[in-house]
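queue> pop job 88
queue> type: inverse folding (structure -> sequence)
queue> payload:
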């Protein structure tokens, strides 16, 4: 703990207290709405611990490995949220939280990162082109499966009777492609000498790994309590489960990218900031979503790639928008604002639906 600053120690103590408070509220006669809110804050706090710990571990590697670690471990809360939602029969929440995570990262978080990075970079944020292009390819592959299933259901063709089977084949295909891409992407990582000179880990490796483990375990428990309080809280607040999953759950489960990407962009570390956010988009689309489709086969309620037509169209346009804005390796401030605007429209639709 001597390697931590006083503020970091206070954060860790506060997050531990919030996690414990969520457990007490869950097992006592406390308002579900209050439990839902506290659990959401606790999830965000646990995500910060994951981000901090992974950053310490990642300083020993290049931006590709570091971004991959941060986005992978940062998606732990989202993974647990979907698992517990499926076990509770909340299929709508499970599905909308996944696509909500895609929208939150690809539009809201990426937009904020670009705005911040462009201001630091004199009007433009500049970064490598490979990851943005690869992310778009993976996202379009996922969207292809979703569009095919959506069109089959809307056209009421014979294939519409086999949505689950098509989803399984699509999930396996996505996982194979993602694995092949990841192996190539990580091998291409080249840590720079200057990065290692200026970014010295502030916490020992063992301590960081212990923090990661504790945050992962805490995320599992808090996600369970979060989902248990979701239904009564949604009814009390008067919002739809779609909005809760698409916006509230998605943002709470992706707090790592919300904080880490923006902080890195503010420090002028454009490649690492884009790596964190873009890796998360790729992982949700081509790993987390298909993996959970397969995992859901062990539950009573199964997850598929069948979505409402409006979200199918929104996913396709999102993939095209981030390709248009980031494929050339630079983005202007107004382009980041445009992504944020797209997310605002989508969130408003979900609230009004």
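queue> result:
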């Amino acid at each position: 703990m001597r390697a931590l600053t006083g503020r970091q120690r206070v954060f860790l103590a506060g997050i531990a207290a919030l996690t414990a408070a969520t457990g007490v509220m869950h097992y006592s006669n406390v308002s579900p709405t209050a439990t839902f809110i506290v659990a959401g804050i606790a999830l965000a706090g646990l995500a910060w611990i994951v981000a901090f710990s992974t950053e310490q571990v990642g300083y020993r590697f290049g931006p590709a490995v570091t971004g991959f670690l941060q986005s992978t471990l940062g998606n732990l809360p989202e993974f647990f949220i979907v698992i517990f939602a499926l076990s509770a029969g909340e299929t709508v929440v499970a599905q909308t939280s996944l696509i909500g995570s895609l929208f939150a990262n690809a539009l809201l978080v990426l937009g904020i990162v670009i705005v911040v990075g462009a201001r630091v970079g004199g009007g433009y944020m500049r970064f490598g082109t490979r990851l943005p292009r690869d992310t778009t390819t993976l996202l379009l592959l996922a969207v292809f499966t979703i569009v095919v299933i959506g069109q089959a259901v809307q056209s009421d063709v014979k294939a519409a009777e086999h949505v689950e089977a098509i989803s399984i084949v699509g999930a396996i295909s996505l996982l194979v492609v993602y694995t092949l891409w990841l192996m190539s992407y990580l091998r291409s990582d080249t840590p720079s000498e200057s990065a290692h000179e200026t970014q010295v880990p502030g916490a020992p490796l063992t301590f960081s790994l212990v923090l990661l483990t504790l945050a992962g375990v805490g995320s599992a428990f808090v996600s369970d309590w979060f989902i248990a309080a979701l239904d009564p809280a949604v009814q009390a607040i008067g919002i739809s489960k779609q909005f809760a999953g698409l916006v509230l759950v998605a943002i709470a489960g992706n707090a790592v990218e919300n904080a880490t990407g923006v902080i890195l962009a503010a420090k002028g570390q454009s490649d690492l900031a884009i790596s964190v956010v873009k890796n998360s988009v790729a992982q949700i689309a081509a790993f987390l979503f298909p993996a959970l489709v397969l995992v859901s086969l062990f539950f009573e309620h199964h997850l598929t790639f069948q979505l409402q037509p409006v979200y199918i169209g929104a996913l396709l346009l999102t993939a095209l928008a981030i390709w248009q804005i980031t494929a050339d390796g630079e983005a202007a401030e107004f382009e980041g604002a445009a992504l944020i605007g797209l997310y605002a429209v989508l969130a408003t639709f979900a609230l009004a639906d």
